[in-house]
Amino acid sequence: MSDFSDLVQMSQQLIADTDVPRMKRNLQQINDSTLRLAARAPTGSQDNVDVKAAILLGSRGFDTGKVSQKLETLSSAKTFEPLEPVRDTDIQGFLRNERENALLAVIEQARKNTFEESERRHWDTMESEWEREKQKILNALVVSGQEPFDFSQESESVLGNSISMQGRSTLDSVEMAYSRQVYVYNDKVVQGGIKPSLVKLFSEVVAKSDDQNVQELWRMVEAMTDVPLSPSGSLVKARNSPNMQASFVQQAMKYLQQIYVQYLRNTVYSHLQQAQLGGIPGTFNLVRSFLNVHLQNVVIAGLEGGRIDGHPGWAVIYYCMRCGDLEAAQQAVNSVLQHLGDFPRYFLEYCSSEDGRLNTQSEREVRLLYRRSIRNCTDPFKKAVYCIIGKCDPRDDHSEVASSTEDYLWIKLGQVTFEDNDGSSDKLSLSQLQTLLLEEFGEAHFSAYQQPFLYFRILFLTGQFEAAVEFLSRIERLRCHAVHVAIALYELNLLLQPYTVQAQLLSKESAESKDDSLRRLNFARLIMMYTRKFSVTDPREALQYFYFLREKKTSQGDNLFTSCVSELVLETREFDMLLGQLAKDGSRRPGALDKFKLDTQGIIETVANDTESKGLYEDAVRLYDLAKKYDKVLSLCSKLLSEVVSQPPAPQSNKDRRKQLALSIAQRYKEVGAEANPAVSSTFHLLLDLTTFFDLYHGGKHEQAYKVIQELNLLPFKLQDVDNKVKAFQNFSHEIRQNLPDVLLTTMNIIYSQYKTTKGSATQSPLTRHMDGGKQTFINYLRVQARSLITFAGMLPFRLPGDTNARLVQLEVLMN
Amino acid sequence: MFLLQVLWWRTAASIGWTVLLSPVFITLTSFIASFDFLRPWTWLSSLLGILSGSVISGLSFHISCMTLLVTFMALLFAPHHSVRLVTPASRLQYILSVINMRRAVLYSTVTTGSALLGWQFASILTNSSLTYHSSELGSAVLNERHLFLVLFAGAVGLAFSTSFFMHNMNVIHFPIVQQAKYFRVRSCLLAMCVNSAMSSLKLLPYFFLAYYLILGQSMKDFTKFMFFCHEDPSSVVLNSIWGILNLSLAYQTWLCGCLTHILLSLPNLLHKVYHSEQFQFPIETNVEMYSNKCLHHALAADQHPHLLYLGHLDLYLLASQQPLRRTLIYNLTQLGGHALNWAQLSKVCLQRLEVLQQMLAAFNQRTIASAPLRQPSGGGNDLIVTDISHSAFMNGSTPGNESKSKPLTLSSKLRNLRFVKFFLDERPELSSRALFVDAQCHIWTVNALSHLASASFREDKYGVMQKSLASILEIMLLLQESLEKHLKLGLGSNGNLSRASSAVGCANTADCQTVHAAVKSALYRIVETFGKHLDSVELSTEQRRKIRMYVEYKE
């Protein structure tokens, strides 16, 4: 910003160029002269408003004069005049009265409704606009600021960023790799081939990195998404259906078992001496060896079930089951058959059942058995095994057995039942488990911010993908993983989403049904939030992400992809790169957007519309040009030109730039033969000509300017033309009319200067004296012209600025 | 390198035995030579006279001279032995490899040495020297019979040394059946003698012819000039028809050639027997001096092919036959209880197989890619050659390969000439042959791994093996797949290539097919041992399916 000293300097510069004599004034004097100038300007504010209204309405074809007259003639007096009293017997009168009353009532009602409606719409618009703004602000805030709670990660992420920051991109290497896979995927989708698995693609990315946690995360995603996909239909219903829930639970348990086996292996391999694994592979031996290592320090008093190679029988059975190897468990059961009572029978049934449930009779027996004796027994493994087989006592934590969160989760998942909950408290449904983990325990219990992956895993394995993703996305350094998990789920049609894109990132639809405990993730918002971070530096990548939103609608019903692209374009101003570029021959060189084979023209048009509504007319012109909306291009151009037509030309000025733009467009359209509305087109060309006229005038070439204005046929130069021109004036558009005062003044100036030169030359040059007659005629001719201009100005149904009129008259007087 | 001491000692021992055995052969031959069909009793008594010691002292000078010569030549041959069979790529290459400089020196030295041997032996046989003083002429006279023997011995030397390389006699073969050295030598000795007799006999007519045509006169002139002697005008000239048709001369000449050949082959035989003997490398050691001399060091000794082979042989033998040493592998270290021995061994072995598998896969890929060109011996070969020279495993294995590109850079015009083409064209089967230069090692590795794995089922107390079982199966299945593809592409057929090296009882003729068979039987061995327990091994679905095939004997 410039301060006063700059201003002073600039003003001095102004003076330096011209020969104007210097004038020194103090502040008071300046103030006075300002006031004087202000006073000279049209004073009546009412007047001013009228003029403005006339200009505004006139441009749209309203005749303000007539309308105001009509309005004045309208009188409410008649309508609302109290009806004349009617006599009781005057049926005619009574009926008329009633009818009119009814009419009036209806009118009144309609009026009221209209007011209410407009009021409501107004507020709606305000509200949605506010929502949008609010959203933007929120997104911007999320990007710019770290959450206040994770100070510990801040330094880490800063370090990570500084290392991986390459070039000008704000994407780090992992995000870059992700975005490459997104690009690959989108490319395949656009080409219409078989869609590759996004989970696989993203897993490849992390496989190269050495972040174990993230690799584990994707392995889990891969396991959990390996379920029979829901056919088209309500995703909410599918997600809540027993079938899908069962397969989620199954996959989750399988995953937990796999990582447990891996854990056992690692433990055993790192204690080979103690483990005595032996040469025979298999879960049974693995468990045995693990117990060699693990149970050495544990007091095994109170453990029942005989001994298998020196280890308590129930423990071996439990660990075999924990590894998911029922055959091994069966082997264990068989080797201590005599110590287990009735259990082998139930276990056989459990193994052979498909869904891991006993039949009703057996289950009842097991539960009874559990309540009577086993609950109080000293062997925690026995309790755990019974609980899993009979699905009883879901409230017990089995803390002696389940040492880790995964163990706990596994036992709980093993106890989940899927039939309609009959309200009995000793059965656990998946939604109950979900609520328990997400709401009752929650982030605080699992100290989620210290171990985000653990909490994510808990939520994800219990089928709460949305909550899991939302949680992870809250952590800056893990957000990219969250976003891509969401994308993968979205493409697999596994992601629950709210009905409106305005919703919170994580929301809960309470209306759906009472047992619908699932959260919804606002996918669109997540994507927009993520892309905001890099959209300025990497618009191409951002575009790829927006492509996922192509089937979504904004709250206004527009395509979300389009509106995102529009915003992106406006923000980055990478018109050429994103939307394409116009070549000299009028053909469009494709941009990044064209790769998606969508309705590129339509999108460009939308972007242009948005640009126009933001007031960026020059950009809008270019965009409309790209979208081949010639009418819009020309009318906008006219609007732009009309503002600067009368200004003196200067290099690098607004006028210069706009003129160049207009000229190039005019030339190209002429070559290509672009069709546009003739009225718009003629306005545009007239304005161009007027520009030339003013340029010539300012350049001191009055003769040529005079010729131009005569050829334009805009103004009357004979008295008899005045009427025609005034009529013709009604057809001119607002852009022309607006400039008319300047045109008039300038023309008058030219005529006056011609007059002056003619007169002056006559007195000086003896040569012209002989041609005096001609000169006098010419002077008369000029006077006529001036007169007709004055007449024209007077007859215009358009109020000229006061000083224009004054100047005109003054000049005309000078010529007489 | 330290382990080279082993090889030095073995060379020294073999030469020592040569020194001991050579006099025996010389004496025996000279007895046989002096056998008189008409007067066997006189011969026998003179034999007894020799044994009594009066004559032997006369012979001992000649014998010791000959022994010295034999030792010298054995030393010359020693560095030319190799465990790898190098097959030159084109005929030109082949010719160049036979007559390269280093070898030419060897040829000339051996020829001279053999001639000297012949001289000594002729002195024993004829009891005279090359020239003698003739009282009639009053000057030194050339003993042409003596000269004839000397020249023939030289010819045998030349023939032996050239065939030594041409017939790949320099390649050390490792016996399939492990025997004591004594028995191996004994079983080979007779064959060697017969072989010597036969080659001497074969050479004889050619030599006679050559002597008659050109050699005789020129050599006689040369000798006369050298020794200032004259020809005996009374004796029959040998390069005449009558001179040649001398039976006793032919017999003596043959005997002389026979002995020379035997004296040249004997060190060769002993060298091979000594060097192909198993060497037991220590598996682990606490002694500082041996800390870098363990089995896994030998297995990784890529710069010393011989050590490499010995290491692999030892590994194979210990895996298949030596339970005590096997337990050493399955054992844990005293400190920390890590399976260090196994980890080191398995790392080397798996890496070796992996390298082979990857090269095979790449080679197959290239062959498939270049298939429409119908040029199995075309440009693809250059690539594989460079690939191989990049790989550490193959480093230095084929010295001929580097120079191979030179003739290829000649103008194509020249190359298209039929004559030139004959020499420059690569033999098609050789392209894949380069991959299997060390096939023997791979076979040993595969067998050793499978033996170790199947033995671990009972012997492995700590489950050391279990950890790697998946990766062993994995690499074997992959290798098997690549090999099968290789065979299907028609690249692995050995053709007549191994004919030259197909010595009876030796295993070095390995190529794609034998490796394939070895891998297959190794897989069967593992599958057979583990049976249904293989289900618990972590394998991919595809691999599990393949293992299933083996379990059901469908592969």
Automatic annotation (TrEMBL), chain A:
A GO molecular function held by the record: structural constituent of nuclear pore
Biological processes annotated in GO: poly(A)+ mRNA export from nucleus; protein import into nucleus
Gene Ontology CC: nuclear pore
Main location: nucleus
Source domain of life: Eukaryota
Subcellular location: Nucleus, Nuclear pore complex
Pfam families, per database record: Nic96
Name assigned to this protein: Nuclear pore protein
Organism in which the protein naturally occurs: Capitella teleta (Polychaete worm)
Automatic annotation (TrEMBL), chain B:
Subcellular compartments: Nucleus membrane; Nucleus, Nuclear pore complex
Keywords: Membrane, mRNA transport, Nuclear pore complex, Nucleus, Protein transport, Translocation, Transmembrane, Transmembrane helix, Transport
This protein's record includes keyword Cell inner membrane: no
Source species, domain of life: Eukaryota
GO cellular component: a single term: nuclear membrane
Transmembrane segments: 12-35, 55-78, 104-126, 146-167, 188-214
Species of provenance: Capitella teleta (Polychaete worm)
The name this protein goes by in its record: Nucleoporin NDC1
Any GO MF annotation of the entry: protein-macromolecule adaptor activity
Biological process according to GO: mRNA transport; nuclear pore organization; protein transport
Family, similarity comment: Belongs to the NDC1 family.
Membrane topology summary: Multi-pass membrane protein
Main location: nucleus
Stored InterPro entries: Nucleoporin_prot_Ndc1/Nup
